[in-house]
Amino acid sequence: MFQNQFMSLGTQTSYTKERNFVVMVIVSAVVGSIISFSVYFLYDDEMDWEYFFETVHFNLLFTMTCIYGVSVSYLIHRRLYLTNETISKHFPSTIPLDVAKLPEKVSSVTSSEDQREALIKIKFIVDQLKDTISLVNQCFSLQVLYCVGVSFVIGIVCSFYLFRAVIYRNDQLVMGVVNFVWYMYYISFVLFFIAIGSRISHEGQRIGITVHKAINFCNTSRTVINELIIFSQQLLHHIPVITCGLFVYDWSLLYTMLGATATYLIILIQFDVSFPSLDAIGNLTSQE
């Protein structure tokens, strides 16, 4: 559907990059899962098979949810990018000082009627993208919220476990490193989703900037300028964001997670230092 609309506007679309990205994400997830499970097998020869199959089931659910969310979000980002390029192609984004030196992508459309028809199609594409983003928020926001919450809790536990293993120099140091590797594997999917969600917000804002430049530099018709002004107001009232209703999936979420993880980690360390461990209590009791 989007392909035919972009082709009618003279924008060539190639889905090779999108296919390669989806394949790369799936292959990376499979390889990462195999490597993580291999580390567990190398560390512990007597594997608890019930725990192993539970971990595999959880890993598959987590991985497939993140892959679906990341892939769909990336496709939306590419459509927003193509929309921005299409607007720049049909409307000037710089001051036309010399007609002979105008960029080729702008000089291809000169009449106000052609610009108006192109703008109507672009508005229709943007409306469809907004509806698609709303559907993505409804379908994937809660699932990704669960993945973000699980990654947050696992990050606190694994970081504290690794800290205790390093400080007390016990035999659980290797297991602490293995658990931390698992945490990095899970958080990588969340980082991908946050990065793409941030790029979607950035492309949505960039469309508004491109429309404002077109308003400033368009000199074909007052009707086209009025249409661009109305389009700009519509963009300001609906910025495309990936959200779960509680917060937006962008880089500010990552900074909040890092700050909260550091806060809870410090609290756990203070409790661990302030109170004696169970081993120390057992040794004191045996000596008495």
Automatic annotation (TrEMBL):
Pfam families found in the cross-reference section: 7tm_7
Presence of the UniProt keyword Transmembrane in the record: yes
Keywords, comma-separated and alphabetical: Cell membrane, Membrane, Receptor, Transducer, Transmembrane, Transmembrane helix
Species for this entry: Aedes albopictus (Asian tiger mosquito)
Protein name (database record): Gustatory receptor
Localization: Cell membrane
Protein's membrane topology: Multi-pass membrane protein
Keyword Membrane: yes
Spans traversing the lipid bilayer: 21-43, 55-76, 144-167, 173-196, 253-271
Main location: membrane
